[in-house]
TrEMBL record:
InterPro entries: AAA+_ATPase, ABC_transporter-like_ATP-bd, ABC_transporter-like_CS, P-loop_NTPase, PstB-like
NCBIfam families linked to this entry: 3a0107s01c2
ABC transporter domain sequence ranges: 5-246
Protein's name in the database: Phosphate ABC transporter ATP-binding protein
GO molecular function, one term: ATP binding
GO CC list: membrane
CDD domains, alphabetized: ABC_PstB_phosphate_transporter
Organism of provenance: Secundilactobacillus silagincola
Length: 251
């Protein structure tokens, strides 16, 4: 596998408490990787390392290597705004800005200095189509994004991220606050997006991981226990802990 993003020996401590104990994970382009494991095992912490969201948490120490496009994500010269454009994040609770759909999707582009109306219109349509929400909002682009359903808001947030053409999409339990139909729509959207992006998703939903992820990483107590093709891990896990977790013995 050729890795777009490669991490080695990642340790993270919140104050004196170490939450990640040396994680090595490679992520391929054009694929979905799921991070699974019981509550508190460090999935979200690890995910947030990938676009330096943990930098915002005081007293956090991070060591290890994070190579992305042959660049060290934690190099002092890294431009964080640019990094978070290249490695965007979708959260558990949909968090559109309290503006129109159009303003949400053009937000990052305008920040980057794009003002040409035709260009912005094209990008809005492209991003909303990629996020599979265009048909539902195309006649209401000036409506407040927060007036849509939770599932629609989540897809608007995905479109907002896609507008700035990221390389990697991080998702932290993006469907756990949604109803089953909205969750299924997001899963279908992600399956289509993986043809163009590297997608990394934290999920508690093992069925979801088995449905959409090419590879799955199982974490436990801040350690990476097993990482493999999802089809293999879910049928023939190597480690006993993985087998026990997948069989519902804990977690
Ligand atoms: N901001 C923080 N400050 C201190 N400790 C934290 C912080 N965030 C997480 N932790 C601790 O780090 C460990 C890993 O938490 P994390 O949220 O990454 O796990 P998780 O696997 O994503 O859990 P969940 O599935 O419940 O979201 C836990 O012990 C948690 O209490």
């Amino acid at each position: 596998m050729t890795a777009l993003l490669s991490t080695k020996d990642v340790h993270l401590a919140y104050g004196k408490k170490e939450a990640l104990h040396g994680i090595d994970l490679d992520f391929a382009d054009h694929s979905i990787t799921a991070l699974i494991g019981p509550s508190g095992c460090g999935k979200s912490t690890f995910l947030r390392c990938l676009n330096r969201m943990n930098d915002l948490i005081p007293h956090t120490t991070i060591t290890g290597s994070f190579q992305f496009h042959e660049q060290d994500i934690y190099a002092p010269t890294t431009n964080l705004v640019e990094l978070r454009k290249q490695i965007g994040m979708v959260f558990q609770q949909p968090n559109p800005f309290p503006f129109s759909v159009y303003e949400n999707v053009t937000y990052g582009l305008k920040l980057a200095g794009h003002n040409d109306r035709k260009f912005l219109d094209e990008q809005v349509e492209r991003a909303l189509k990629q996020a599979a929400i265009w048909d539902e909002v195309k006649d209401n682009l000036n409506k407040n994004a927060m007036s849509f359903s939770g599932g629609q808001q989540q897809r608007i947030c995905i479109a907002r991220l896609l507008a700035v053409q990221p390389d990697i999409i991080l998702l932290d339990e993006p469907t756990s606050a949604l109803d089953p139909i909205s969750s299924a729509q997001i899963e279908t959207t992600l399956m289509a997006l993986k043809n163009e992006y590297c997608i990394i998703i934290v999920t508690h939903n093992l069925q979801q991981a088995s449905r959409i992820a090419d590879r799955t990483a199982f974490m436990l107590n801040g350690n990476l226990i097993e990482y493999d093709l999802t089809s293999k891990m879910f049928t023939k896990p190597v480690m006993q802990d993985t087998s026990d977790y997948l069989n519902g013995k804990f977690g």
